[in-house]
Amino acid sequence: MDLTVWRRSTELIVECYQLSRSFPREELFGLTSQLRRAAVSIATNIAEGNGRAHRKEYLQHLSIARGSLNEVETLLAISELLGYTTRQNLTTAVGLADETGRMLTVMRRRLGTGD
After folding, report:
1. What is the pLDDT of residues 18-34, one digit of tens each?
2. Topology of 4-111 in CATH?
3. How far apart are CA 105 and CA 7, in angstroms?
């Protein structure tokens, strides 16, 4: 797939996986799993939407991707609040999330939503 937003979202996945490796073992089925699933959901919804035949379906999947991005941002903030990581360690992930969010907004506007 040759969408910049999709590529950026896959970079966010890698960063979330790397960050969550340092989370406590007891979070494996909690915060770690939820963060990873939400990050993967962003890229998979972009890809699925891109493969849809109708613009309305594409917009729906981009909206779901945006919701998953909001979830990732919240989970990253929670991981800092719980002391599982530091603001400095989150710099790359937060930057990728911000960039992905801006790209999703632009895509949705170009496809005809009033974001």
Report:
1. 999 999 999 999 999 99
2. de novo design (two linked rop proteins) (1.20.1440)
3. 16
